[in-house]
Amino acid sequence: MKLWGGRFKGSVDKLMEEFNSSISFDIRLFKYDVEGSIVHAKGLNKAGVLSDDETNLIIDGLNEILKETDINHIPDDEDVHTYVERLLTEKIGDAGRKLHTGRSRNDQVATDVRLYLKDAIKDIGSDIKLLIETLQSIADEHNNTIMPGYTHLQRAQPVTFGHHMRAYVEMFKRDLSRLNDMVKRVNIMPLGSGALAGTSYNIDRRYVAELLGFDDVTLNSLDAVGDRDFVIEFLSFSSILMMHLSRFCEEIVLWSSREFDFIELDDKYSTGSSMMPQKKNPDAAELIRGKTGRVYGNLITLLTVMKGLPLAYNKDMQEDKEALFDTVDTLKICIEVFTGMIKTIHVKKSNMETAAKYGYMNATDFADYLVSKGIPFRKAHEITGKVVLYAIDKNCAIEDLSIKDLKSFCDSIDVDVYEAIDLKNSIRNKKTIGSPTLDEKEFR
Ligand code: ARG
């Protein structure tokens, strides 16, 4: 069955038919297409287009179809909308042929995709929440695990592993807030916009929107059917979230290397080598980092598809679905695998602490100590630089230098300097909101 045969004399080329068809992927919208159709029938009934009997026949038929249809079976129909209408007509006859009154596949598909996305957003939102909770509980266990903090991947100042985990908590909280914020733009109903110019049937769109769970209706029919901003917004949220996961994965890969040796991944989330028997590889982290590229690709795909389109609907827009579905699937599995992987990591606390001792990470504290003795910071910086150079030459840490040695750089230096440059005190002394802190309870 075709929804548009009347105007044609000849039949469509076989390859063209295959090319044009979207059923292999838009079958995923089946449930939403049926749901939208049920409510459209109610709208037509309220508008006086369908009788009560016809409406009930359509609604019962659609509900049965929803129950009976195996969506793993891909039929020959052009798209999911054609499929649902065919199944309904086969089931209830002529009343089924009335369902498409005042509706186009253009407002229909835009509505279906929004309904699908609303569910996907809920699903992904709870995955992100679980990830945040997992990171928070790891952070709570490591409030006093001192590790090197880096800039330029050079040891910079001591932080805690808890503080490092909470940096990612902040990122994922922003992702969640972006996701929740987008709902107010996704949750607007295009149905009733027709093919591009609305419909002459007096359908109460707000009534239909309420039944479908939308907050409001779109206000311009051309925009309603020609808009995919909501998909692009989701893909852009997804790209940012994947960028965060990917940075985290990069750290996991580094940390699990022999060179860092800060963590060991659980066997559940590692793989081996077919040739090198000793290998334990962080494949989960690498794959998530790799899949980030594919999500970025989906964003660029749709931005590029949309950039040259005149109003309103164009068939190019059928390309939105694979990019969206693939992103939803990729995001879900990446967040879930990542959460499992991070939940089971073994933190090598003492290796982190040892690494924090080397690399002159208390140099800033040393300079701050001089400042506390009345020396201007710029001068203190210079003196400290010289002390570090001297210690490098002696192949030792600042705290290994004798007070006599230290005093030769600046007379104001006293034995209380050792306390001031202690790593724990370095963290303890941080005072601004957002600085790392120690959980002092543990020291009591
Ligand atoms: N399969 C199409 C899509 O996904 C549905 C809308 C088709 N509309 C049309 N007039 N050909 O975009």
UniProtKB/TrEMBL annotation:
Any Gene Ontology CC annotation: cytosol
Family: Belongs to the lyase 1 family. Argininosuccinate lyase subfamily. In the N-terminal section; belongs to the lyase 1 family. Argininosuccinate lyase subfamily.
HAMAP family: Arg_succ_lyase
Tagged with keyword Amino-acid biosynthesis: yes
EC numbers, comma separated: 4.3.2.1
Pathway membership, UniProt: Amino-acid biosynthesis; L-arginine biosynthesis; L-arginine from L-ornithine and carbamoyl phosphate: step 3/3
Enzyme class: lyase
Gene transcribed to yield this protein: argH
Keywords assigned by UniProt, alphabetized: Amino-acid biosynthesis, Arginine biosynthesis, Cytoplasm, Lyase
Protein name: Argininosuccinate lyase
